[in-house]
């Protein structure tokens, strides 16, 4: 949307923008004065943040104040269109405590087609989401996407259309409202690093439209691509080497002679059909802000910012987590705060922990995946040694006020070993060798391994390799069901109790195994992540109430943890205090409440482990075990079964 009057340049630009916008708003008869006052109030609060964040990215270009005004007007258009019930939600959220740090918050994630067939089928599963106790439901990308391989929907052809096989946008909005009525927040992906090559913008670019060519990183020859590829990381080397792909303009019917094929190259960090957007062009920022707000207005309460680290490219760098990424996030955050403040961002930055933490900030993303805790949970289960995990909880768990980790055991993606080599070195562990060990362990190649995982993007040139497999299969449910059930519950107990929003990959709670048939679908056969994206298993879910079945023990265990978590005030908030168990097999941490503390202990080894009375002498002798309310005398020490965990309410001795 283009506005007619343009803003004069000048030092007092901010005042002029405000003036211009206020006048524009006053002329807009679609909105009543009360709503207008709400918006202008928010604008006054946030305009400075908007100006500074946009200035950091676009300040040196021409028409900077136009860029600011355009961002505000994009927010205004979305505010005008925002349904009343969502505006009410905005108001309630604006002066409430964050819901996602509460002990009630529990998330689930699934594919619409794999879990429910389509949106109509998924509606039938809402009672199940309630039974499990979810308050957050992430639907994997459900937008229009290319036929065949679409990277599991992460190649979006239109942000405004649901894949017709799954339903319509109207149905999605209705689904969101149904969830909302049940206290469940809908979480959607905002895939904003790239579009598919079939998106209208990409097609226009391929056809040679100069306006849309500048939406992407398109170069006429290999000069710039070669320069960039000196330093940018390969993410999917199985798909294509480097980060650029030849533009195929024949797809859009552009006639070029076969002797002179399209010479252009386009940036594609992930697959060849995923074209990276060019945020150095402010039009891209505006266009994507409008798409983002469209999703917010259809009822998304959390947007998962996909592949966030990659959105800014800078010659001579890794082109990941550049400072401008954070400025752009701040700018998007303001646009959301103006139009739809109930919506939170969740960052998907699966990178070095020093980088991950930079995204989880109140003015960027209130939520972030916690890939470090995820990876080190797997590390502890393989090594039966908690030192790396324990150090990470002590040093890297704290996040700013008003933010929270999303703690997960696994996701739809591979498991990558994104721990810090420096942290490992301090414990005498060599990062590179240790990753090799973990890859060997989880692919079942290491002697004595219980895991049934599959290697992903094994890159002999760089030595990089990641792991695929469902939680149950990676923990050996096929071959050693007894210990595997305990390990599954142990892994989930950590996600449930360290502080933050626990996220269940649906299917895990009934012990779903690897999909034995994943390679039969030719569209997916090259991408091992499909091994851990099995279809909804009627049989597994039916057994969930049978406490003698494996499914029932896992479901009952996870359901039980959710109940205990919900009734334990100490699990509110995100504060974690380390606790040294003096035993490398037993992880310890404390969750402080008003007067009491919950002490969490978790034994990752295959044998019973003891935490001595002396180790526990900082607490009063009498403790209560959560769940069964059993009294425990700490002076006798605590014995933990193999792969056992305990949550104890204790009182500090002083
Ligand atoms: C994220 C998604 C992953 C996808 C990639 C590209 O990492 O989680 O599934 O392949 O982005 O969109
Ligand atoms: C992500 C990560 C990478 C991950 C991939 C999806 O953004 O950077 O480690 O494996 O994309 O599979």
TrEMBL record:
Glycosyl hydrolase family 13 catalytic domain boundaries: 111-543
Alphabetized Gene3D superfamilies for the sequence: 1.10.1740.10, Glycosidases, Golgi alpha-mannosidase II, Oligo-1,6-glucosidase, Domain 2
Entry keywords, A to Z: Glycosyltransferase, Transferase
Molecular functions (GO terms): amylosucrase activity
InterPro entries reported in the protein's UniProt record: Amylosucrase, GH, GH13_cat_dom, Glyco_hydro_b, O16G_dom_2
EC number: 2.4.1.4
SUPFAM superfamilies found in the cross-reference section: (Trans)glycosidases, Glycosyl hydrolase domain
Matching PANTHER family: ALPHA AMYLASE CATALYTIC REGION, ALPHA-AMYLASE FAMILY MEMBER
GO terms for biological process, alphabetical: carbohydrate metabolic process
Enzyme class: transferase
Pfam family, one: Alpha-amylase
Protein name: Amylosucrase
Organism listed in the record: Kocuria varians
């Amino acid at each position: 949307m283009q506005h007619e009057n343009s803003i004069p340049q000048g030092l007092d630009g901010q005042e002029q923008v405000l003036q211009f916008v206020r006048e524009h708003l006053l002329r807009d008869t679609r909105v009543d004065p009360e709503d207008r006052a709400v918006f202008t109030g928010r604008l006054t609060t946030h305009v400075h943040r908007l100006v500074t964040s946009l200035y950091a990215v676009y300040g040196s270009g021409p028409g900077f104040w136009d860029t600011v005004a355009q961002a505000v007007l994009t927010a205004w258009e979305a505010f005008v269109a925002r349904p009343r019930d969502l505006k009410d939600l905005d108001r309630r959220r604006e002066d409430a405590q964050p819901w996602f740090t509460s002990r009630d918050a529990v998330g689930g994630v699934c594919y619409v087609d794999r879990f429910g067939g389509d949106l109509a089928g998924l509606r039938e599963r809402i009672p199940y989401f309630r039974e499990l106790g979810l308050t957050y439901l992430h639907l994997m990308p459900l937008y229009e996407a290319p036929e065949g391989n679409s990277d599991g929907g992460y190649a979006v052809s239109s942000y405004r259309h649901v894949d017709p096989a799954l339903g319509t946008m109207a149905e999605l909005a209705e689904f969101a409202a149904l969830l909302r009525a049940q206290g469940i927040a809908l979480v959607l992906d905002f895939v904003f690093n790239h579009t598919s090559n079939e998106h209208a913008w990409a097609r226009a670019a391929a056809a040679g439209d100069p306006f849309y060519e500048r939406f992407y990183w398109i170069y006429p020859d290999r000069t710039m691509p070669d320069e960039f590829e000196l330093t940018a990381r390969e993410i999917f080397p199985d798909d294509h080497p480097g980060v650029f792909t030849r533009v195929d303009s024949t797809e859009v019917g552009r006639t070029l002679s076969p002797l002179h094929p399209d010479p252009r190259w386009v940036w594609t960090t992930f697959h060849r059909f995923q074209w990276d957007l060019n945020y150095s062009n402010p039009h891209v920022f505006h266009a994507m802000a409008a798409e983002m707000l469209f999703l917010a207005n259809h009822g998304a309460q959390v947007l998962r910012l996909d592949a966030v680290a990659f959105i800014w490219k800078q010659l001579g760098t890794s082109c990941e987590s550049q400072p401008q990424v954070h400025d752009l996030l701040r700018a998007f955050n303001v646009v959301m705060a103006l139009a739809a403040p109930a919506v939170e961002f969740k960052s998907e930055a699966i990178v070095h922990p020093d980088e991950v933490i930079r995204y989880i900030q109140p003015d960027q993303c209130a939520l972030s995946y916690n890939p470090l805790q995820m990876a080190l949970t797997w590390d502890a289960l393989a090594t039966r040694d908690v030192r790396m995990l324990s150090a990470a909880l002590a040093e890297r768990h704290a996040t700013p006020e008003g933010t929270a980790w999303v703690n997960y055991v696994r996701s739809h993606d591979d498991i990558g070993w994104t721990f810090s080599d420096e942290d490992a070195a301090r414990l005498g562990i060599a990062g590179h060798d240790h990753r090799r060990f973990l890859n060997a362990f989880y692919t079942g190649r290491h002697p004595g391994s219980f895991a049934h995982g599959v290697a992903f993007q094994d890159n002999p040139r760089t030595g990089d390799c990641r792991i695929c497999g469902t939680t149950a299969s990676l923990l050996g449910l096929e071959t050693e069901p007894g210990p595997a059930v305990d390990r599954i519950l142990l892994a989930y107990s950590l996600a449930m109790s360290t502080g933050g929003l626990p996220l269940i990959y649906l299917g895990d709670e009934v012990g779903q195994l690897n999909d034995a048939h994943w390679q039969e679908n030719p569209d997916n056969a090259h991408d091992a992540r499909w091994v851990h994206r099995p279809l909804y298993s009627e049989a597994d879910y039916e057994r969930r109430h049978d406490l003698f079945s494996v499914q029932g023990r896992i479901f009952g265990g996870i359901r039980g943890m959710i109940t205990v978590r919900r009734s334990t005030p100490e699990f509110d908030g995100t504060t974690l205090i380390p606790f040294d168990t003096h035993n490398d097999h037993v992880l310890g941490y404390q969750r402080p409440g008003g007067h009491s503390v919950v002490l969490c202990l978790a034994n990752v080894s295959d044998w019973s482990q003891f935490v001595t009375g002396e180790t526990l002498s900082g607490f009063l002798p009498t403790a209560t075990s959560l769940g069964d309310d059993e009294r425990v005398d700490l002076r006798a020490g605590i014995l933990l079964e193999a792969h056992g965990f305990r949550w104890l309410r204790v009182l500090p001795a002083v």
